Amino acid sequence: MTALFHYFKRYLKETILGPLFKLLEASFELLVPIIIARIVDQIIPQNNENHLLMMIFLLFGLALVGIVVAITAQYFSSKSAIGYTQSLSDDLFAKIMSLPKERRDRLGTSSLVTRMISDTYQMQTGINQFLRLFLRSPFIVFGAVIMAFTISPKLTIFFLIMVVALFVVVFIMSRLLNPIYGKIRHSVDHLVDLTREQLEGVRVIRAFGRADSEAQAFQDENIRYKDHQLSASVLSSLVGPLTFIIVNLTLVVVIWQGNLLINDSTLTQGMLVALINYLLQILTELLKMTMLVTSLNQSFISAKRVQEVFDKTSELLEAPFEAMETKGQEDLSILAENLTFIYPNSAKPSLENISFTLRKGEFLGIIGGTGSGKSTLVNLLANLYQAQSGQLVICDNGKIPKHLKEWRDWTAVVPQKAQLFKGSIRSNLNLGSDIDYADEDLKDALDIAQASEFVENKEGQLDAEVDAFGGNFSGGQRQRLTIARGLIKQAPFLILDDSSSALDFLTESRLLAALHEDRRRNNGQLIMVSQRTRSLKSADKILVLDQGYLIAQGKHEELLETCPLYRDIHYSQESQEAK
Asked: Looking at residue 368, what is its pLDDT?
């Protein structure tokens, strides 16, 4: 948790000035009961109107100064809290982006979104309240007790008993509420996850008539969230009544004992009024402290969740790789030996003992049924995951990448799910590089990706607007734009992860012809995952995966003769096309 405190250094002045101005405001408030006591005991009995007016103006002056001081304190406290949260959110986002894919998957997208938005906001609220109250409330409570002691040491004993009783109540409630607040944060994660899943899959849900069942699933989760919130609200709501009971009992005792002291002439009426005012001030501040403790409890839980992200180890992009061997084969492009990979909490490996090689300039195809490990192999080739055992090496003109950043620079991955971002076509194409490419380069990539026609028909062409997730483009258009984005990177290895599935056969054949020509011209490697044997006919080598195993590899004609699974896939597709 200590790592989160260094963000205050950027707002050290505001962090110090906010509580100090609140302390000044509290000092003015402690003077008010003394002035009132003087008015009651001295000025009113003497019927001194001029002196009374002076005291009234003094009270108004203290109130005015208190307002100015309070606004100033609020300004500094808010600036510190908001600035802290902004800096924290920036670094948290950067940290999330630097995490290895495996660690992000473990945390979950919805949980990360909640931590980025909800938890940081909860921390901001807690910091703002803490800076305003952590000096002011204790100062008024103990200051009021001390001022009461100067008036009547005997009655001050009841004040001390009241303060101790209230602190016990707050402590017990905090211990009871903390676990519930933790459950609330987890429920928020589940709700965000469920909402995100249902909104993204709304077409599928409607197509299969699952709207009612999905609504019921959301309702069940929402009820769990409501139950946790109700439990927390019930316990929190007990603090106020318990506080009022304790304070009012103390008030009754103080008035009773004060009346006896007045009869004994050891206490004046003004002093009793001052004691009651101090008692009410203590009540007000203790209620604020109760709210502060509740807010801090939630902020502390949120801070722990944020700290969990910062505690994760980031990818060391420029950490040198261990020496990798290519067995002196200078024309080698990819060497995979006995690769085995298993996902966290998985019962069996997604890939097991995968071995193959790829020569320079060759076209590699990957095919297999659902769940056979195709996308997992792509993730290994792009070094988004690291295999638990085995060796994987990529080479470019005899060179091996020195570190992870260079490996990633050498690979351009076009994912299975076409992902576009809000902005323009130009900004999406330039996403894969640190430089802005010239229009000619962008158009060349669009030509190869068979996307030029529909881009030219868009108003603004390269500067045409792209909605979030590419919602204003069809599935095939999104795929072609993501392929163009991969081409723009001009990486030695272009990996297409079933990224032409939404294209018709004619468009796909034109795309493949253009890709082959581009790869030959740039002396690069094309790696393509596809469900269609037609798309892989020209591949120099095809890997056939089944349930995580590499059951065959070779060219299209060889596999038709030697691999029953490949043959079944091919002929089933041909029969479907014939229909």
From this structure: 84
